């Protein structure tokens, strides 16, 4: 996991593969990577078809349609037309919400004082 600005913790796919491989020493890392890729590809394919994917205890992935609208270029203030879009949406499952709300908050990161 990597620490980034704003004290958020991010796990990238390769770190997920390593963690799963460590927890399952009977599997080769390349096999774990193939499994993770297969899961993510299957979820992506289902969303591309407009299907909903529910992983009990974790959450549900779905797509939401955003209608076309008139927007504004923040630099120039000029109005621009924004086309219709389909966006992925994730909603946590009840078990995950309970688990997240039971966790203590992350302690604030110490920030080094700037030299003047």
Q: How is this structure best described in words?
A:
It is a single chain. With 116 residues, the protein is α+β, with helices and mostly antiparallel strands. It folds into 2 domains: 1-49, no CATH class; 52-104, HU Protein, Chain A (Irregular). 34% of the residues lie in helices and 27% in strands. It is built from 3 helices and 7 strands. The chain has helices spanning 13-23, 29-48, 94-102, and strands at 2-3, 9-10, 53-55, 59-66, 69-72, 79-82, 85-92. The strands form 3 sheets. The protein has a 3-stranded antiparallel beta sheet with strand order 3-4-7. Strands 1-2 form a two-stranded antiparallel sheet. A two-stranded antiparallel sheet has the order 5-6. The longest helix has 20 residues, at 29-48. The protein is extended and about 60 Å long. 0% of the residues are buried.
């Amino acid at each position: 996991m990597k620490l980034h600005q704003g004290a958020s913790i991010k796990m990238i796919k390769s770190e997920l593969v390593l963690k799963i491989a460590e927890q399952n020493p009977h599997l080769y890392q390349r096999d774990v990577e193939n499994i993770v890729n297969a899961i993510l590809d299957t979820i992506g394919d289902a969303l591309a078809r407009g299907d909903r994917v529910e992983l009990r205890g974790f959450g549900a992935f779905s797509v939401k349609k955003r209608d076309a609208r008139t927007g504004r270029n923040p630099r120039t203030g000029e109005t621009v037309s924004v086309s219709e879009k389909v966006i992925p949406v994730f909603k946590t499952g009840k078990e995950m919400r309970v688990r997240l709300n039971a966790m203590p908050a992350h302690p604030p990161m110490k920030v080094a004082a700037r030299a003047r």
